[in-house]
Specification:
There is one protein chain. By secondary structure, the protein is an alpha+beta fold. The protein has 3 helices and 5 strands. Strand 4 and strand 5 form a beta hairpin. It comes from Streptomyces gilvifuscus. This is ATP-binding protein.
Length: 138
């Protein structure tokens, strides 16, 4: 189902979103002749965790989670209920100075994902879309 967007049923937590994203990789991206590298899947799961957790904690709740399979990898769309655009979303990806226990999410997303787009939703809230590249095992 290359290129089709799949809305994740009943995803309300970061753990459920990770499980769903991993299942899409294994069932839709992987083929008989192509298997995603595990380190790329781990990167995908980190991005999923950060985006979904941010939606829950800072975006007035998770309003939706979608996964689309592309030839390059996995495109994620995370919908939340907040109109606020995170200031760091278009930053350099530099990690915060000193260890404060927070502030690492967006730098990780910027480093691991491509084509980061933030769109306001018509009924309120926003959608953050990213492409997480996947490479096939040699």
């Amino acid at each position: 189902m290359q290129g089709g967007t799949l809305a994740a049923p009943h995803v309300t937590t970061a753990a459920a979103a990770r499980d769903y994203a991993r299942s899409v990789v294994r069932q839709q991206w992987d083929t008989a002749s192509r298997t995603a590298r595990e380190e790329d899947v781990v990167d995908l799961l980190l991005v999923v965790s950060e985006l979904v957790t941010n939606a829950i904690r800072h975006g007035d709740g998770l309003a939706g989670f979608e996964v689309a399979v592309t030839a390059e990898g996995i495109r994620l769309a995370v919908h939340d209920n907040s109109d606020d655009i995170p200031e760091v979303a278009y930053g350099s990806g530099a990690l915060p100075v000193g260890h404060h226990g927070h502030g690492y999410g967006w730098p990780l997303i910027i480093r691991l994902a491509r084509e980061i787009v933030i769109d306001r939703r018509g009924g309120g809230g926003k959608t953050i879309s990213v492409l997480v590249p996947l490479r096939a095992l040699p």
